[in-house]
Design the sequence.
């Protein structure tokens, strides 16, 4: 059954070269396979699949989430230095670009196609 199988996140993009640059150079993921239509990146114990689609960026919910523990501030500073802008959502406490709920910290950003990426202090 599926409960015993590994899974991967999958994200649609319109421009594979632009996506390759973003996921490799900006986010720092290692590409483990790929061609002009599909790429696979290593991310922790799992993979992220990026594929070409005319429907890229149409999902208005989180596409990928990472639990980064106490590295939230460092990762945010690194991404900001690379030119990443962050999403800010109303109704949540915001400290700089990091949303805070007690000890829980959350950050959202978008890839070049508008896919919503999220990492938090879990």
Sequence:
């Amino acid at each position: 059954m599926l409960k015993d199988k590994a899974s991967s996140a999958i994200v649609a993009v319109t421009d594979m070269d632009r996506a390759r640059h973003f996921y490799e150079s900006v986010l720092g993921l290692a590409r483990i396979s790929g061609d002009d239509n599909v790429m696979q990146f290593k991310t922790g114990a799992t993979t992220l699949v990026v594929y070409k689609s005319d429907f890229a960026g149409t999902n208005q919910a989180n596409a990928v989430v990472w639990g980064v523990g106490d590295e939230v501030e460092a990762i945010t500073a690194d991404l900001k230095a690379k030119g990443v802008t962050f999403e800010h959502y109303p109704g949540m406490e915001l400290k700089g670009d990091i949303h805070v709920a007690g000890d829980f910290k959350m950050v959202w950003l978008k890839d070049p196609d508008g896919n919503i990426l999220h990492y938090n202090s879990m």
The beta strands are 9-13, 30-34, 38-43, 46-52, 62-67, 86-87, 93-95, 98-101, 104-110, 116-120. The longest strand covers residues 46-52. The chain has a mean pLDDT of 96. The helical segments are 16-26, 72-81.
